[in-house]
């Protein structure tokens, strides 16, 4: 890619950013958009419907200031510890890339420029220079300037590790503080016991009572056995639906009652249906308490949190597949379907999900490979000769190389988080926060594999699997393939990164849905729900740009300013969204941080592997050997953090 | 190797076995050998000194019967659960190889023989046939007979897995039974707390008291802070030494007192020295209770086992590197040096030990490669042309190929268990049983790597490391290299395996030591110690033969009868040793079994990998693909067992 193509891309996207910022500031002031852009404030009743019609249409940047202002404490109060952890991930990345950016732009970039491996830079016509001239590829074999890169790698690693340590410690302390500051809550006194063994004759309830009275006499308080209520729930749902119907029907009255017989008045009909439902509910309630509907799981409550903790941490049974204890989830966080699953079923479900994830990861390569084909103009011309004329147009070729590929890739990536969430939900977790954590993990690795590695290796050939199966060669192959994709990823950051934050700001899908809904039911004052933040969608996305920045830090330092800009955008926009849009539904109390930590460590080790391969390619034997301790130390540091926190 | 060489080896070793069995039966009846062969019975006072001088010199096989007879319960009483687990490992192997042997000898061996890939078997002169004719190498590419091997692999895997499951369950139940049947012991009421954080001003003892009174008020009983006593201990050791000297000196009196001045009577001298020591001990005791000598660790006792278990399983501190809890080891099992080590020190020690083990493993390849050179006559003749004449002698060549290599290898392997025990002892364990377990694990992997893999791959070339770094190729490379070493390993089982058990029976080193000692101090009625069983030395050895048997089960079924014989010998001899020689010093309560289990699983998976490679080589695509689920299922089974027990 030429510098001009990059500049064009940067230009387009900067204009888009400014345009959309202005548009957003206008749109959010329209009362009918409150539901999309300020649902949180609407629900809290703090968004005043403004009367001044003119002020509504004047763009302003006040919202940026507003989202900048709140302190961490306020964020904690409004979005819980998870929100704080998410924002700290962004500030952490900002710190890292400020440091990396200074080194990269002021030290590495000039060093790369003054190398003369490829061609000398054409200072007269900057935009005609290839981006490769700014990368490490421009340095000669055995160039002593490579030691500058060597030093930069050590420096960045040390900086990131220190920062990671302090950040982890900070979040660990915050977790404890959070626990101490919050009032004792019922679920802290309760544990969930599953796989209660069946004893002949007695009911589950009796078994639980007997067991805990025998083993935890002094602290045991009571228990609730879980029942299968799917039938009852369906009846209740039916009733709720009917309530909605009735509520909507009464004031309208003019719509024809196509479904009911004409002889009947609508009120009489509803009365009969409601009576029937009431009957059904009573029947269902009676049925639920029958012993056959008992699930072999129970919530067991204790007199103190200490008692609950004791019971939680002690192995309860000789057979470790019985009497499994888990901390009880918060009441609105419970995910019911897997309470009746046996140990074996849960285990098998887990294995199946792992296989499904692997399969998805492998099948997903197809669109990625197609996308990669598009970035390669020569390949495209070769495959579709009739396109030669169109492709020879400068604008078309620049759009194709600079914009289209990442757009297609990004669109197909949009479906991944919901799929992963679904897979995690059938994996046997018993609370939504666990599902989110598990899905987040899956999406992180999926993104790294299918965006980073697939792009890196499909660019040269479809030999990813062979690379994985040949670990000795990995560093050298990475060192060949990763720098080759530098321009793709710079374009990726500029296009996908920036537009990503904009789509997040605009909430494109909810905005469109609400628009369409409004055009069908114009004057509907429907109840609306404040959406929860989907961490499993956003965390991997932000982390991936961190990975890109760290990996390309010494290969193509030109990427760093764009990444830094991305994180600035993300900082403002996510703070805005936390204040105005998303309300926390449950709180994992900061348990997303370890994932963030591990991904950062992985990024560092990946960078080291590439560096080792690169120095080997550049025939710097000493530097290669001196780099080997670095990943080892980083992994040891990670191990230490894992033990310490 | 030819059949004749094998037969010669079998002949020599069978004769040696019979000879040594007879010799043993005579030697063990000599009262002066009781110390070596029957120390346990001597210590218990149950070995009657026989008066009948003639009967002493008549060989008998009564000892075999005696060691056959005791039931498992008696074994449990005399050697603890560890002894039972060890014997069950042997009986387990016996069952496996009885099954495998029947399939191998009656199904696979004939199938292999009637293949005609190599040459047709010369039925007239059996002994001139190469051993390869009895192996799977004799089957043609795409031979339908290979499906017999395919079935046999599935059958054996299923059999071993079933057996493993039942065995693990049996041992888990035995562990619980053992716990229930034994009386409550002090160490069950106690936990060891380490890394007690220093609080300014107050002593460790006060800190512990305050902490447990605050957090475990209802169950906390008392504690003992650990003190640094190395100085005191050295004084006590001095005193003990002196006591020994005095005890031995008094009756003899004729040896010249070279060390002491002539003017002094020996009694007066000893009295003065003793007084001095007493003084020192008192000083030392006073010093030990000074606060500077306190170690930040303590044994904390509770009122009930339940209380101790609660405190053990609960995380005690916000910082998980403080207040680390461990179950207290049995009093005579404690290993003192690492009580003062901080979390960080222990962790670093562990990492260093891992590196040391890796280094040892790599450096150890040198003797193995040398040994492998010896088995290859052609290479030897090429390197030392002057030996051609000697090597052309049939006896020499047969001894060299059939006997010498494994002898050299085995001798150098003898030093490994003590080294690994030493490495484990500086790894930060706090009890001897943990050290033994850790050493056992190290020796198992060392043996598998340095005997099996080094032999397999050095036979063809020194490309082991390249194989490891190229996992895709592993099955095929194994399938080429492993069958090539079949004759070496058959010889290995016959020579090393059988002589190993004999050296165990004869306790060669203690026997020689006692002989030499007796010739220097003829009439010494020294106190002797009953030796403990060194599980970390014997378990890996027995397991390794299991691994050989399973790996070569379908490649060269000829190995199976010899392995079966090895296990029969081992069964008799180890039972004998448990009854007569070894006394348990501490009991891990059967914690060696998981290691045995994992090694068996590893053997199975290794066999599957080789089978996949072999079927790929023999161009049986369908069989290759149908085999892939087998290792996956085996690993899943292992995972299940790990969770279940």
Features:
four-stranded antiparallel sheet, mainly alpha, 28 helices, 645 residues, homodimer, 2 domains, 67% helix, 4 strands
Question: How would you characterize the overall build of this protein?
Answer:
Two copies of one chain form a homodimer. Helices cover 67% and strands 4% of the residues of chain A. With 645 residues, the first copy, chain A, is mostly helical. The first copy, chain A, has two domains: 478 residues, no CATH class; 144 residues, no CATH class. A four-stranded antiparallel beta sheet of chain A has the order 2-3-1-4, covered by helices on one side. In chain A, helix 9 runs antiparallel to helix 10 and helix 24 runs antiparallel to helix 25. Chain A is globular. The interface between A and B is medium-sized, with 25 and 25 residues.
How do you describe this structure in short?
The structure is a homodimer of 645-residue chains. Chain A has helices at 3-27, 34-37, 39-44, 53-56, 62-68, 72-113, 146-181, 204-215, 230-252, 266-288, 305-313, 343-363, 365-375, 377-383, 388-392, 394-402, 404-413, 416-425, 432-460, 464-468, 474-484, 486-506, 508-520, 535-551, 559-580, 593-617, 621-627, 629-644; strands at residues 190-194, 220-227, 294-302, 324-327.
